[in-house]
Protein 1
Amino acid sequence: MKAELLVEGATILTMDGQWRAFDPGWLAVKDGAIAGLGPMPAPGGLEAGEVVDGRGMLCLPGFVNTHTHVAMAAFRGAGEDRADRLVRFLFPMEKALVTRDLVREASRFCLAEMARSGTTTFADMYYFEDEVARAADEAGMRAVLGETIVDFPSPDAPEAHGGLAYAEGFIAQWQGHERITPCFAPHATYTVDPDVLVAIHGRAEALGLPVLIHLAETEKEAARFKVSHGSAVRYLDSLGLLDPRLVAAHVVYVDAEDIALLARRGVAVAHCPASNAKSGRPIAPAYRMREAGIRLGLATDGPVSGNGMDMEGILGLYPKLQKVLEGRREVLSSREALRAATLGGAEALGLAEKTGSLEPGKRADFLLADATDFNMQPVYDWYATAVYAMRPHNVRQVYVDGRAIVRDGRMTTIDEAQALAGMAGIADRCRDQIARLMREIQ
Ligand SMILES: [Zn+2]
C-alpha cells in the first residue's frame, strides 16, 4: 500500500470500543482517512509520501469541543465577576459591538488557539455564523455551526426571532460541505418562544440537521420552568423537542427524572465544567448522566464564559469536579474522561462515524503531543498523563483529514501574525465601549 502519511513509533491511544492502545505504534493515512494502525513495526511493503517520526510522542484522536462561541474571543476577560452578567453585560455589549467584521476576525483568532491545543472538531453557536463557517473552512477544521435564534433584535437580525430566516440562508449555503455542518441554534428555553422552538425542531427534522441549545443552565430558568412544567427539561419535552438531534449545553439544573428523560429521548449533552464553575453554578451531574447512558461530550463554552479554549484546561477539571460532587475518588476514570473529550464529543455531535477515535475508515483527525516534556514525565498510565498532565504547549502536530493544520506547534492554514493583529484591531475598537459598560454594572 502507498499511504500519504505514516506516523511511526508514537504511543497511540485509539479510544475505540476495545480501548486499544499501541505503545509504540504506527498509523497510516490514505485519502484523508485512517488506512491502518497497529503495534510497531509497521508492515513491510507500506510506503508513504511522508513519514513522521513519532518517537516520544503521544498520538490521540483530535479533541472534540462540543459547545463554543468562538467569536466571543473579542470580549474575553471583560465584565468578569459581576452578578447576572449575561443579561446585564453580555447582551448589551453584543448589541453594541458585534459586527460581521468582528465575527470574522475573532473566529480566525480563536480557531488558531483551539487547533494549536489539539481540537479538530467543534460546535459553535453565534451570530453571523456564516463567517464562523468560512473561518473553520480556512482553518481546515471540522465543525457543527448553529446560527443563534433569539426573541429580541440581534446583531445580524433586527426583528425578533430573525435568526431563523438567517439560519435558513446560512444552511442553504453550507449544507453538504464535507467538514462543516450548518444548523439551527435556538439560544435557550427562556429566549425563544415555544411556537418558534417547535418550528425550528420541524425544520431541523426535515433537513436532517442537529439543533444546538443552552438547557437547564441558569437558576432563573430552573425556577421559572419548575413552576410551569416541573423543570426546563420537561418543558422542552412538552414541546416535543427532546430527540437525538438535540445537543443541550450545560444541563446543570436537572434531577433524576430529568436525567432519565434525557436518556430515554436520546438527547446529547455538552458538559461545560469550567464555565459553570466560574458562574458559581452547581456542578452538573455529568457522571450520573453518563451512567444513565446519555451521549456526553466536553466543552470549554465561549471565551467569555470559560476563557481558555483549550480542551486540556477542562479535561482534568471534569473528573475532579465529579469526584467532588460524588465524594469518591474512584468515580470517573481518566480513560472515561479522555473519552468525553474525543469519541464522546463526536457521538454527541452525531459525527462518531467520521471522527473521535482512531479506527480504520474514519477520517484521519488526530494530534501528536510531545510526551518528553517536564510536565508529562514520567509516564505510568498514559490515560492519566493525557487527562491530568498534558498542556496545550505539548501539542506539536494536528491533523484533520490527514492534513497537518498545525505543524511544530504553529498553524499552517491561518496566518498567526495576521490573526493576532486582527484581534488587536478589534480589541482597540471595543475598548472604550467595554470600559463604559463595565462601569455601568459595577
Ligand atoms: Zn454557551
Protein 2
Amino acid sequence: MGKISGVVIEVTRLTDRISSLVVAATDGVALPTWEAGAHVEFDLAVGARAYSLVSFDAVLKTPTSYRIVVQREDNGQGGSQAMHAMQVGDPITFSAPKNDFAVIPDAPAVLLAGGIGVTPLISMAVALERAGQEFRFHYSGRSADVMAYPAELSSNWGDAFTLHCDGAETALDLDRVMSFVGSAHLYVCGPRGLLDAARAKAETTGIPSERVHFELFEAASTQGGDTAFEVQINDGTVYTIPIGQSIIDVLEENDVDVMYDCQRGDCGICQCDVLEGTPDHRDVVLSKAERDAGDVMQICVSRAKSARLVLDI
Ligand code: FES
C-alpha cells in the first residue's frame, strides 16, 4: 500500500513533553488494520519518522484512525518537535503499519518499558489480556509525572503492572524483572542503556535469545565529538556526511537507492558491508564480536571513526 494522505483529528497533551495524536485518512476511509508492536512512518519536513501505534482497546479490522504518543526531544533531529507542533486539522502523510516487534499472543510475557518506549507495550498488554495470556508489565522512568499513562496502566492491569521510578524504592531492579521471566518471552522497548542492560542480564540469567525481543526507542541525536566523514560507494563517488545527518540521509538526497526501515539501529535492514575504514557503531543489532570485526555496519545510525568509509553500496 502506498502512502496515506491524512489529517490530525485529535491532540492531547499528557505531560509537558508527551502528547498523544490521532490521525485519520483525509477522506475518512478505513485504514489498514495492525497488530500490537506495529509502527507507522510519518513524512515530516525533517524526514520520515516512525512511531508505534497505541490502542487501549482491541484493534478493529477496519480502523478509521491511528493513535501515536510522542515525546518531544529538544536535542533530537526535529521529528518529535514537528509532531508536537501539529494541530487538529493539519495535513499529514503516513505509511501503512509495519511490524518488526510483534508479540506472540499464545505465550506468557514480561513487558519491560523504559520511558516513552512504553507505547508499543501498551498495545501488547491489551493483546495479551484479550488472548487470556499471563503477562507482567514493568514501566520504568524518572517519575510518574513525566511518564505516559501511569494511572491508566495501573488501573487497567493492577498487580500485573509495576511502575518503577528512578531513585525511589520502586526503582527498576533488572534481577527482579528477570526472575519473573521463567519460560515467558521478554519484550523490551526503551533507550539504548536499558536495552543493553536488559539483554546482558537476560543472557547471564540464561534466557534464550529467541525469547528476548527488543525495539530501540531513542531519538537519533547528535553526540558530542561527532565529526563529518566521507563515504565512498561502489561507483567511486565520495559523499561527505555532515554532523547531524546520517549516511542514509545523504545517500537518499543524492538519489542513491538504499534499503532501510526503523532508522533507529534496531531492525538490521540497512546493514551493509564495510570494505575499508572503521565504523563507529551506534546500533543495537550487532554483537560485540561483529562490532569488533567492523566489516558490516547499520548506515542509519552508525558513523565513522576513520576519515573515510568505503561501503559496498
Ligand atoms: S534501518 Fe533499521 S537498523 Fe538501520
Protein 3
Amino acid sequence: MHTVIVGGGFAGVKAALEISKKQLGKITLISDQPYFLHHATLYATATGRSTGESVVPLSDIFANHHDVDVVLDTMESIDAKQHIVVGKEKNYHYDNLVVAIGVVTTYFGIKGMDKHSFGIKTLDEVSEFKNHIKSEILSDKKLDTNYVIIGAGPTGVELAGALQAYLLELCDTHMVKHAGVNITLVEAAPKILPRSSDTASKKVQKRLEKLGVTVLVNHKVEALSDRTIMIDGKRIPTHTAVWTSGVANHPFFATQPEIFTLLDKGPRPVIVDDHMQAYEDIYVLGDNAAVPNAGVAWTALRSAIFIADHLARKMTQRPFKKYHYPKPTESFPIGDGWAYTEWRGIYAAGKTGYLLRRFMEKKNYLALLPRTQAVGAWKSHTIRESDVVTDTN
Ligand SMILES: Cc1cc2nc3c(=O)[nH]c(=O)nc-3n(C[C@H](O)[C@H](O)[C@H](O)COP(=O)(O)OP(=O)(O)OC[C@H]3O[C@@H](n4cnc5c(N)ncnc54)[C@H](O)[C@@H]3O)c2cc1C
C-alpha cells in the first residue's frame, strides 16, 4: 500500500509517523517547505526566543523512518480517477491520499491591510516583523509611537503579552532611550478570545492590562497605511500593525469542486465523512477538515492518529471506527511565566497555568520528535536570541 500525504504540518507529520509505526507500506510525504513549523511558539520566536522551538527540519523528524520518503514539492492538483497527485516537480501515484495543507490568512478586504500589516504565521513573516522592529530601533534610535495588534485570538493575545518585554530588551541592548511602549490590541468582537470562555477572556484581559497593553474590544479596524491605522473613524499613527486575525481554508480545495465539498460558513473547511474521507481514498485532516474543534494542533494530531488506525483497519478489512474528539485543553501564555490554561471548565491562571502550558508544549514535541530532539526543541524556549545585530541584514 502506498500512502501519499500532502502537508508537513501537525496532521501530515503525525500521520506519516503513525502510519510508519504501524508498518502499513510505503509513505510519501510531500511538503512545500523543508521544515515543520510549531505555530504555538511563533509568538515567542517573534519576540526574541530561539527559532529552535518553532522550526524543526523534516529530515530530523524522519531520520529513523526509512519507509517515509520526504519530498520537497507543491501539490498543484489531484486526478482522483487515476489516483495521482500532480506536483510542481513530478506526479505521485497513491493508494490512499491524505491531505493536510493548513489554512491561509484573509484580510476581509480591509483597505491596505495586505500591503502594510505584518504577520507572524510563517517564518518569513516572523523575520520581516523582527527586522522591521530592529531596524527602527537601530537606525532611528527610537521606538514606534504605537504598536497595534489586530485580532485578539490566541496569537494576538500571546504576541501582545510578549512584545513589550522584547522591545524594552532591544532598547537596553542598543542603549536606546524611550518613554515607555504603547501597545494596543484591537478586537472587533465584544470580548478578547471570542471563541473561549468568558473567564478566559476576563483573566487574560486583566493580565494584558496589568502588563500595560491597551485592549480595545468592539472596535473595528477600517484601513491601514504605512503611517496610520484607522480604528472606528479615528486615525492613530503607527508603522507597526500586526494582523493576527482571519484565516480561510486553503484555496486549493475550491479549485477541485468535483472532489471536495466545502462547508458554507467560517473558514469553509472540507466536508468529510465519519472516517475523515472527502472522496474515495482521499482523506482530509487538521485545519482543512470540517470536524468539531478544528483549528488547533491537538485536533490535527488526533485526526492523524485516527487516520493511521483507519488505514490499518482498511488494509486488514476490520470494521471501521468513527472519528470522535472531545474538546481540547486551551492555554494562552501572556508574558513571562504566566498563562491561562483551561480544561473542561477547570482553569489555572498564573504560574500553574504556565507550567501546564509548558507541559502541553512538551507533549506536542514528544508526539512528533524522538525524545532527545523533542526535549531540545522544548528547552530552547529558555534561549533568547543573542545575535541581534546580524539578524537585521
Ligand atoms: C500563529 C499561530 C499560533 C497558533 N497557536 C496554537 C496554539 O497555541 N495551540 C494550538 O493548539 N494550536 C495553535 N495554532 C493552530 C495550529 O497550529 C493548527 O491547528 C495546526 O497547525 C493545524 O495543523 P495542519 O497539519 O492542519 O496544518 P499546518 O500545521 O499549517 O501544516 C500545513 C502544511 O502544509 C504545507 N502546504 C501547504 N500547501 C501545500 C501544497 N500545495 N503542497 C505541499 N505542501 C503544502 C504547509 O507549508 C504546511 O507545512 C496556531 C496557529 C498559528 C498560525
